[in-house]
Amino acid sequence: MVPPQSPTLATYYYEGTNNWVQHYYDPTRHHLSPRVQTDVHVYHPANVSNHAMDASSMQYSQELSMAMMQQQQQQQQQHQHQLHQQHFVHPSYAAVDPSQTMDPSQAAYLASFAGASPGIQLPPRSGGAAAAAAAAAATGLLSPRTTALNQLNHLMSTVTSSNMLPTSTAAAVNHALVLPPFASPEYHEEWRENILQYAHTLYGASPQSPLLLTILHALHESFPRHLPTLLLLACVYYTHQDYQASLTYNQLILKYDPNYVEAMSNIGTTLRSLGRTQEAERWWYKAVELRPGYWDAVENLVGVLCSPDTSRKPDDMTKEKGMTPRFTEALSVCEYVEQHFLQGSQQRPIQLPAQLPVHQLPRLQNLFYAMGNLKYALGDILGAKQEYEKGLDLVFSGLDWATVVRRLAMVCNGTAASVTSVVPGSDHKDGAAAGNNATIPLILLQPEQTMSLMNMAFSSSGGLLPGLTNATASHAHSASHRRKHTHPNNTNTNQASSSNIVQQANQTTSTIMLTLAKLFQDLIHPSSPPLAAAASQLGNNAPTLALLLPLYYLSLALHPSPSTANNLGIILSNLSGSVTSQAIRILPTNSNNNHHAAAAAATISGTMLAMQYYMYGLQLDNKHPHLYTNLGSLLKDMGHLNEAVSMYEKAVEYNPKFDVALANLGNAIKDMGRVQDSVQWYRRAVDVNPNFVDAVCGLINALCGVCDWRARGYAWLPATPLAPKGVAVTPSRDLGYVDSYGQWQLLLDSPTMTQGTGWMARLVSIVDQQLHEGSTWGAGWLVKQKQQVAMTHPHRNTTLHVLNDLVLRMYHALVASNQPCNDANVPRAFIETWEKRLAAMESPKKNQGGWLVRVVERLTRRLQRQWYVATFGPTLVNDEATRQPPIVVTAQHAKTYARPILHHDVSSAPPVPTVLPFHTFTYPLTARQVRLISHRNALRISHATLASSWLPNHVYPPPPPPSPRLKIGYVSSDFNNHPLAHLMQSVFGFHDRTRCEVFCYATTASDQSPYRRKIEKGSEHFLDVSTWSNQQVVDQILRDGIHVLVNLNGYTKGARNEIFAARPCPVQCSFMGFAGTLGGGWCDWIIADPVVCPPSMVSSEKWRQQYHDHANAGPLAQHQNGDLEGDLDPESERDDFVYTEKFIYMPHSYFVNDHKQGFREQDDDTQGNGHGAHTNTPPQQQQQQQLHQQQVPRLLNGHGMNGGATHSPGHATSNSNSNSNSNSNSSTPLGGETKMFANLSVTDGLPHHATSNEDRWRAEEAKRWKMRRELFPDIHEDTVIFANFNQLYKLDPSTFRLWLRILARVPNSILWLLRFPPAGETHLRHFATTWAGPEVANRVIFTDVAPKHVHIHRGRVADIFLDTPECNAHTTAADILWSGTPIVTYPKYEHKMCSRVGASIAYATGFGQQMVVYDEAAYEDKVVHWAQSISYYNDPTTGTRRGIGTLMHLRKQLFLTREDSRLFDTHRWTRNLEQGYIEAWRRWVHGYEFEDWLNLSPTNIHMAENDKQQLAASGCIWIKDDDDDKK
Q1: How far apart are CA 1491 and CA 1103, in angstroms?
Q2: Burial class (CB in 10 A: 0-12, 13-18, 19+), 688
Q3: Measured between alpha carbons, how far is residue 1014 from residues 68, 783, 987, 1344 in Å?
Q4: Which of 288, 313, 715, 1087 has its CA 20 to 30 A from that of 926?
Q5: How far apart are CA 39 and CA 295, in angstroms?
Q6: Whole-Å CA distances, 1292 to 698, 709, 924, 1411
Q7: Cα–Cα distance between 620 and 1 in angstroms, integer?
Q8: Average pLDDT of 73-77?
């Protein structure tokens, strides 16, 4: 078995604070209002004085602002300092005490409202200026006002004569800032506004400039009641952190105008800076109450409500106003503001209110964005969606998003000029309802098309968002308007240029789109029950991929962002070919003249589009780590590992603490075979994020792969060996674990299932958590379905008609009735059974989605059989003369056998655990955990397949009956140089062609190995489908009329399980590829034997036991926890079963091999007594065997399978088909050991005319001794060689300590292990030295991995093969037994097939009782006893050493009987397998496989007595070898 490729982790990136309550509600951001803000349009007649700036003043303001921003800061400061020192040493103004100018009621109002002390003093100033002003006034020459005006004019004259202003604006400056002689009073006001505008510009460029305070104080002295001047003055003092002065001037404003909300808001901001948050809230509340459209106050208030109250000590916190944000209060404020603008209208889509200036459109968008964030935080997911969509309504001139996308599709396919030019109603083709989002087509755009999308989609508005088309006009019109405010002289406006309006609206719209896109993704693939519930409520209005992608397109067009390109690329990379083939695309402009260009554009896959967006994002930011990471993942999935590693390394270079990139880099390097090198990257990922489960699991897997057991710890899993009766099981003598320092810590007390520590305990905890989190997938759909049926069809039986009549169809399928489905035909007992089932599954804690998938797949099988019986009757087989044609699907067929569909409430993919099914082999996981890990992966495969667009709307038609041959299809990615091909290479040609017609579907390209060539030649039909889609493979299987389809992959590398999930065949089996349950409804049978997969662990057998235990309650009376007839609920809490499939139990062993045909030595054909290589072998097979025999000498002399030189396993080669991770040690060529065999003749010591078993055995001993001396020339002749040739990931600390104890008890012994991988040697030597001392450690010997043939033949050198109990030797066990070497194996767990394979193989030799033990103590004692039983003597006849004793006697028996052994009889094994296939087909045709059909009452089942007995005993198929009775 080869593990599947490590997962690639996609990484989305959202800029900003990356949470739902964000944007301007950042608690560290405070809003000051230096200007008066207008929030509505109010038209004033022409005769009303207009105090807005004229065009020349605005031009001057803009030019001045640009000039000042371009100057260097240092030069500005130097000029300001010089001017201040030389010209602006102005007499200080007299201190003003606002409280002295207020009446008592005003002072009390301020003090009571804000909690501030009345009578706050202005900062004290020197009196020189005041004295001068007083002297001037006393003379009567100038009034104080005139004096102040003259001083201000002199000051501004000095400013205009400085070098600070651009020469291009000198005229405007002289006109605007200097008061001409004899100016009218009206011009005084214009002059004041120009100076204030200059001050605002200076404030924006350098808010702490000393010049700014000087100008503002002079302006205030000249116009003491001009409130905008006081407002800016207060803001300047705030920037100087002179909060008391800022409060003073804001309070002075309120003396003159108690309703001046800008001052109120600024007081709140200042108080919050002083830590007086509660007082600040009251000021902001007052401001919002007076003017709901005053944005700064709204945003400040909502901001403080959304932030933890940090102004008070924890002891002062009340229950109502603690540290937690007050989202509900914040939402109430937002709703109050919304009510102000929309006047309570709930009609959608909305438009910009007529009274609101267009420049404030982005701030109204922000309001809806904030409301969406708040509602999401409060759990109102659909409410959040609506608020985000309101924010988009504003910029699309009242078009809802679905309509925008429909029209955008029309623009893209050329049927509309622009989105806003479509005639209403014409965008719903074929009468599609506007509310049915499923009818909206998918649009696929390339990056360059996306960047021009605005101009194309909104050409009628000049490429602007439609809501902004009047921005320029509105801005110009606003110059003739003034804000609605109680103080008529408050003339300062806050208008922005048109370009700023567009920029702000684009930015805000882009942000809303990205947030809505994230929400759409969550609703399409809900990861929590609230999200799933929200998605189910939307029905046809649920978001789709077609609605999602344009959000990204337009967001990217409005605001190009590498993060947006990154996230869009992830979505596109997951699009299947069937989805992209139906999408709308914009063809190249020259496509009419270039059909090739058009065709190329139309066939760009989702993967290639994703790559284009990643590359585009890197153009925007060539150091974006997420883009490099996702590009690497894309390349890795395409098979470009080296390039992927380079991308991951780039990501880590630019962000050394990027956990996803670090984990992906570890995965890629591990998949390259560099397991030890991957550890550092996993460790770094875990160091950065200890809760990153993918990194944790990857690290544990890598550490186990190289036997680095430090901090491994333990999670207690008791052994369950299923010992025969009368065999006592002794508890382990060495219970303990490896601590962080590599020391073995004994467990003094017996551990429990809940105990554990270290990495293993962490892993088990992760598995438990993820299994629990995924247990509620699809929760709630069942209740809603029943309610829907009750509402729409109140007179129907709810149980029968739930889920599109699923239960009713189940009954008619079972009885194979083609009559119309009718409630009256259904027995009451059947209805009651399903009522109980549905009631049991209504709990929100049930995995209702998983149960629905099981029922849908169950009904699919029964519909397929119903179709067969209706068409062909219960015909098992036809002869050639009565051959029947395949079914041609008609419209009536499609209706009668309509495919059951999944409800839209389970439209999201089911979650799967991080631990893969393959990795459960070596982890301490219970039967339930192992079962659920496989089951959840099966659900993911089923869900993806059943949701595929290429599946027809009817179940696939069954094939016609065999005529007369049964058609068997094998699907595998391993028909190459792979352990499975080594074992099965002859099986496909050994099938009896009079009974079976064999089809092999190879899902990987040929590696040109002899194994591939032999399989291709031996198979009757061999198809290379490596480049075919799943749909194409399924269609071919249907055309071939396959009856039994065999999955040779399971959950291993290269699997195409989706083919099986589509259910193209009546009978589907799993064999050899994966040693465990697949857990899916798309696998009916596992081919195994009762030793490796005990019936006690089979769901159907457990159900039968349960059924018989409750026989008194009546048929089908017990239905709890989602159980179905013959099928216990995989999600149940039960821990006493693991297999959801039934079994075809082979006699002897399920484990097939080809040693007898493919791995002989050159001289085996000369052996007599009927035990030659070609016994019962057809001539064609004899020729193939001779080819293999000719290769053996070449391999022994150091040549590879194709005649090439061998390579050291420590170096990577260019051979992409190498199997460095395979279960067999055949794939990595032998290094230095090959030379040891250079002078060895495989016929040395062999009599050329051996005529007796004794001669054969003597010859074998001679060869063994010769090879032993070549391989280990330095060991003593009496040394006992223990060996294990497994990959080192199968070895655990307890087993290694067991081996070390054996070495200690047998001093004249060595332990022979493989560098598999090489990095494991260092760790094992370290632990051996630490735990057993240097003497024992030095007797652990490592060699390189050998080619397959060399490996098999050198296995004879070992005396005893020590199996690994956690995960046994599989192929290696057969290899070693073929060489005659005995094994000691321990089937440790009843529920783990991988731990029982060795026992199955051993028993098949006929000597299993001598080689199988049932506890560690027996294992140790057995090995030591055998080792001590060996003694050697010199044979005077041959001059070689020969052994005697118990072990040598067993070895002799294994060697001499291997020709007749059931284990190595591939012909016999194939005949038995064919019996299983034929019986599985028979049971499907007759319905015997289906317990619900067998137990359905009343039925007219006519069954042979033998069948009744077999089915009563077991639901599995037990194959009997007829020759066994003759032995």
Answers
A1: 10
A2: middle
A3: 82, 56, 11, 28
A4: 1087
A5: 8
A6: 17, 8, 11, 21
A7: 44
A8: 41
Beta bridge partners of 1383: 1361
Residue-level pLDDT at 83: 34
Distance from C-alpha of 1117 to C-alpha of 835, rounded to nearest angstrom: 11
Distance in angstroms (rounded) separating the CA atoms of residues 1484 and 1464: 31
Residue 2 confidence class, pLDDT cut points 50, 70, 90: low
Burial (CB < 10 A; 0-12, 13-18, 19+), residue 558, is buried
Q: Which of 149, 151, 154 is nearest to 192 (CA)?
A: 149
Alpha helices, H only, 306-413:
327-342, 361-377, 381-395, 401-412
In whole angstroms, how large is the CA radius of gyration of the chain? Answer: 42
1129-1181 residue pLDDT tens: 999 999 999 999 999 999 999 999 999 998 888 666 444 444 433 344 443 34
φ, ψ at 1453 (rounded to 5°): -65, -45
- Sign of the Cα torsion 1211, 1216, 1218, 1222 reads positive
- Provide the 8-state DSSP code for 430: G
To which H or E segment does residue 109 belong? Answer: helix 104-114
What is the SS3 assignment for 1459-1490? CCCHHHCHHHHHHHHHHHHHHHHHHHHHCCCC
Contacts of 814 (CB under 8 A, 6+ apart): 862, 1490, 1492, 1493, 1496
DSSP secondary structure, 127-183, as one string: SHHHHHHHHHHHHTSS-HHHHHHHHHHHHHHHHHTSSSS-GGGHHHHHHHHSPPTT-
CA–CA dist 1016, 1023 (Å, integer): 9
Cα(511)–Cα(20) distance, rounded to whole angstroms? 12
Torsion angle in degrees (nearest 10) through CA of 301, 302, 308, 310: -20
* pTM of the full structure: 0.81
Q: How far apart are CA 411 and CA 429, in angstroms?
A: 14
Identify the CA nearest to 945 among candidates 1081, 773, 806: 1081
Strands 714-715 and 756-757: antiparallel
Report pLDDT for 1184. Answer: 41
Reading the block at residue 636, the tokens are 């890795």
Tokens of 1171: 């035990």
Q: Is the separation of the CB atoms in 932 and 991 below 8 Å?
A: no
- Cβ(579)–Cβ(554) below 8 Å: no
For residue 1341, the surrounding DSSP H or E stretch is strand 1340-1343
Which amino acid, one-letter code, is at 298?
V
What is the spatial distance between Cα 826 and Cα 812, in angstroms, rounded to a whole number? 8
Q: How far is CA 1335 from CA 60, 333, 402, 1282, 1359, in A?
A: 93, 79, 77, 16, 21
**What is the separation, in whole angstroms, between the first and last Cα of the chain?**
34
Q: What is the mean pLDDT of the chain?
A: 82
CA separation for the pair 1376, 1181 (Å, rounded) = 23
In tens, the pLDDT along 1285-1306 reads: 999 999 999 999 999 999 999 9
The 10s digit of each residue's pLDDT in 344-394 is: 777 889 988 888 888 889 999 999 999 999 999 999 999 999 999 999 999
CA angle 474, 479, 481 (to 5 degrees): 90
Rounded Cα distance, 51 and 117, in Å: 36
The b-or-e profile of 189-216 (16+ CB within 10 A means b, else e) is bbbbbbbbbbbbbbbebbbebebbbbbb
Q: Do strands 443-444 and 584-585 pair parallel, antiparallel, or not at all (unpaired)? A: parallel
Q: Which pair of structure tokens corresponds to residue 1149?
A: 């062993």
**φ, ψ dihedrals at 481, nearest 5°:** -120, 170
Q: In sequence order, which ranges of 343-380 are alpha helices (DSSP H)?
A: 361-377
DSSP 1045-1091: EEES-SSSTT--HHHHHT--SSEEEE-SS-SS---STT--EEEE-TT
- How is 1317-1333 classified by DSSP, letter by letter? STHHHHHHHHHHHHHH-
